[in-house]
Design brief:
80 residues, mainly alpha, 2 helices, globular
Amino acid sequence: MVPRTIDRALRDDMISEAYLQVLEGRIKGNATPTDMKKVISGVFRRFANKWGDVSLDEPVSAGSDTLLRDMIPEDAGLYA
């Protein structure tokens, strides 16, 4: 239900967001197109503009294979 024409990082965020909403009980496991449209719109609102949040699935720079999440030290969660 997530369009294949969308950037891979945004698609991954949409899939993750849908999965999270299922786990939280906000949508059912058999999500309708209307549910997915809301998820997709929400991810675009949050991540698809240069002033919004940045996805951790984004490359560090253009053409890089290193993702932003790869730059977070493994023990960083201990201090959050």
